[in-house]
Amino acid sequence: MVLNQGSTEFSYTVYASPYNVTGEDYTPVFTPEPDAPTVTKWFRFGTTSSDLKPGGQDAISYSITVPAGTPAGSYYAVAFAQTAAPKGTGTITIQKRVGTIFYLRVAGPASLKGNVVSWGAPWLQKYPLTATLRMGNTGTLNYKATVNVTFSDIFGGAKYRFNRVPEILPQKIRKIPIAWQGGAKFGLFKVSGTVEYNGTTSHLATRYVFIASSSMRFVTAAIFVLFVAAVVLMGKRRAARK
Amino acid sequence: MMKYKALKSVRYAVLPSVAGLLITVAVPAVAGAATSNTIISSAVGSVISVFTTNGTVNVNVTPTGSGAQTIASDTVTVSTNDSSGYTLQLAESGAATALTSAGNTIPASAGTPASPIVEAANTWGWHVDNIGGFGATATTAQNSAAIGTVKFAAVPATGSPYTLATTATTASNATTTVWYGVAADTSQPTGTYTNTVTYTCTAN
User: Fold this and answer.
1) How many separate domains does chain A show?
2) Which of A32, A189, B65, B201 is paired with A127 by a 20 to 30 Å CA distance?
3) Is the pTM of this model over 0.95?
4) A222 located within any domain
5) What pLDDT is recorded for position B6?
6) What's phi and psi for B14, nearest 5 deg?
7) Which B residues 104-133 touch A at CB under 8 Å?
């Protein structure tokens, strides 16, 4: 569905592009991979270009036809709706395109394999409290990983729950940052959770995190040192009295 | 503003209609009841919208002998209900990287997002505070002023977009300000120089 919620009419085109990712942050790439099938040719759109008045909306029909003999496995593409550059003068003219990712699976023998590559949260942090989960995929099919993480105080009281269901692509590792935005800026907390994928549930071990700004760390350290010094001093005085 | 909505499967289940119900009561009176559960299911589609302040950014400059610079901004606003967030990227729309006017050009800055540079006269580029190597100093607009110390980079090629912003959660009117700068001296032929860039937004 393409909507125009602006105040001026625009022209747009609809087309498919290849889709892949680079890096563990999954930065999208829309150029074809070498030796990869041209998945964009599988797509047919009912409308490939049109004009849309303000307040208008167009429902774009599409079909995906997989060529016979396509090997089993996962294939990816993005369907873009792109505005035409506006007419008129201007040094820089802007085109905008919004895309929806298609995760296609061709039936047949293929492997679905995932794993938790790493899970961790540095024990000493500044705001916001952050943990990182890295999920791997050594198979030939993409899968969804349901991530549920809870940030709790040291008494177990849940303070923030994080939930996300990212796609993990074959032969890629995806880094999933888990941040407690708007959370505490000082204190000792626990982070734990689960990740469900491919019928498996992995428990993410509890991590203890002390969160404090640089100045609060100094204050905390100073209080601790004073406390230790007081204990030592008191011990010496007690020994002296004896 | 352009909005793109991807409708995933939307399924609704409705309660079965109940026709007239006849209860036969015999002695001893026993009332029976049966219940069944129906799950109402609805998949909410992912919607992502992106729009800019204008479809064009004017970076008009009146050159001087030593070089004058104009810096103007475009604000990109993104909203999405996708819980994985979005990625916003910038790239050239075509093969041209220079601002062109008839047969004249203003080449792109030699800077890159990782290593942007102060603009030389007769170059143009882009800048976003707090990403890449652009620095955290807040950029402000200027009009035909002396070339300043703001660093710029060439707009990436079509096949190598640069990520301006990415989120890991839903977004409501999240803004990214993109600055465009043009520096010119009196050796640059007069004209209306233009280039077209593309913002790409996808759900994560």
Assistant:
1) 3
2) B201
3) no
4) yes
5) 42
6) -110, 150
7) none
